[in-house]
Amino acid sequence: MCAVLHRLETKWEKEAKHHTQMNVKKHICLLDKAQSFELFNGLYVQAPHLLLLAEAYDALDPNGNITIKWDIISWTPDGYVAVVTMFNFQQYRHIAPPGWTLGWTWAKKEVIWSMMGGQATEQGDCSRYKTSPPHCCKKKPSIVDLLPGTPYNQQIANCCKGGVINSWAQEPNNYASSFQLSVGAAGTTNKTVKPPKNFTLLAPGPGYTCGPAVVGKPSKFVTADGRRVTQAMMTWNVTCTYSQFLAQKTPTCCVSLSAFYNDTIVPCPTCTCGCQNNATHPGSCVNPNSPYLASVVNGPGKNSLAPLVQCTRHMCPIRVHWHVKLNYKDYWRVKVTITNFNYRMNYSQWNLVAQHPNFNNLTQIFSFNYKPLTPYSSINDTGMLWGVKFYNDFLNQAGPIGNVQSELLFKKDKSTFTFEKGWAFPRRVYFNGDNCVMPPPDAYPHLPNASSHVNFSIFTLLMTSLAFLFLFE
Predict the structure, then answer these.
(1) So where does this one cross the membrane (predicted)?
(2) Are 46 and 65 in the same domain?
(3) Sequence-separated (6 or more) residues with CB below 8 Å from residue 235
(4) What is the residue range of 257's domain?
(5) Co-location of 219 and 88 in the same domain
């Protein structure tokens, strides 16, 4: 059943009317039978949940999600000790600084006695405890990761990275984050304990929608020496999916195009991410030649997540430029440049995803790492690019060095290769998991003889018609 649905996902892209139905089936396929019945009913009864799941669907990463495992590892006189682990199963979307914030609502009147590897941002009202107050008494706690350099007696495995979690494809050995908490005023057996509800995940801003906690197969843990395996008393699984629409109402990046065979540089569409409007919204952008640039960048909002961008026509924090550079007998070459126009953000461990039919014949890539993404195993038309560690994996803020670039060498496929009708340009581009706005197809650089060929054809047809008229008079 799952295999059939997996093959049909390309049809979903073509037929919007099947969007919701197929996305629901895809999610049901990922769960075991016990979970799928509960999810299926939840989706049919609660329409908003269904819409959120449909909105979160990503055609280039159909199975991508963040899975939270809540493992109860021991019982205490008034509750339990649990290890909570977030696994980032998204191929190219990572959690950047300042990192994740995980929240939930307790089912009863639980409190957090102590934590390792993480901390609650607020203690809350613990006045009912006369001695040794708990770490957190809030009904809706918010948890953050500890920073690197935390003392060892406060750490557990996979903690203390400042909330940063890498993507599954980019760094498969570093895609998880964990913390441990001791919960009081809770159930003390599998039958009396209740899972938290209403999970929320900020990574670091909005964008993720989390489902309910579902009982799963108990997790198993291997000791450091590898000679013993222990098992959780109980495990709850929570799945969180991403929606760019929920993350931000406006785009965050755009694409510009050029080619060696045309002098025209096709810019990002005007007002892609916003419009210059310093009259009504002063400070919406900064001119790079402004004498006040340094004071504005280091002003009161320097720690804000809101971008402060350079004044451009497109007003996007990130621009990706795709330049068709050279044409050889059996190969062709593309230059890709990523420019940062954001004065408030350095992008560490950035990544770029591009979709183009010739990625199945990518021969060489210079100064970037590359991995093919094949969500539909029979089609290899999507590539993920990211920087080389300690060389260009850090994209500086806007300025003279706020860019990275590379070149890609493709082998021509005689049956499909052409420079006509914009074939040489990408179908989609993502930066750090967000879809970038492309120029309209009719604006793509065209071959220099295209317009003259059309004019010649019309002229020839006109002269031929006139000749026939004269002949038959």
Answers:
(1) 454-472
(2) no
(3) 69, 70, 71, 72, 215, 216, 217, 218, 219
(4) 253-289+306-451
(5) yes
Q: What is the mean pLDDT of residues 224-245?
A: 94
Q: What is the pLDDT of residue 200?
A: 98
Q: Which residues pair with 112 in a beta bridge?
A: 136, 183
- The answer on 220 and 117 residing in a single domain is yes
* pLDDT at residue 467 tops 70: no
What pLDDT, on the 0 to 100 scale, is given for residue 224? 84
Question: Considering the chain, what percentage of its residues have pLDDT values greater than 90?
Answer: 63
Measured in Å, how far apart are the chain's first and last C-alpha atoms? 71
What is the total count of domains within the chain? 3
Phi, then psi, of 413 in degrees rounded to 5: -100, 110
- pLDDT digit string, tens, across residues 348-392: 899 999 999 999 999 999 999 999 998 888 889 999 999 999 899
Alpha carbon distance 331, 363 (integer Å): 9
- What's the CA gap between 204 and 292, in Å, rounded? 29
β-strand 309-310 against 285-286: which pairing, if any? parallel
The mean predicted confidence, pLDDT, of the chain is 83
Neighbours of 281 (CB within 10 A): 11
Do 96 and 235 lie in a common domain? yes
CB atoms near residue 310 (< 10 Å): 21
Residues 218 and 336 in one domain: no
Q: Distance (Å, rounded) from C-alpha 254 to C-alpha 437? A: 4
Residue 297 lies in a domain: no
Q: Which residues pair with 451 in a beta bridge?
A: none
| Residue 417 pLDDT | 93
What is the pLDDT at residue 56? 58
User: Does the residue 461 lie in any domain?
Assistant: no
Distance CA 23, CA 392 (A): 37
Q: Are residues 348 and 388 in the same domain?
A: yes
| 37 and 77 part of one domain | no
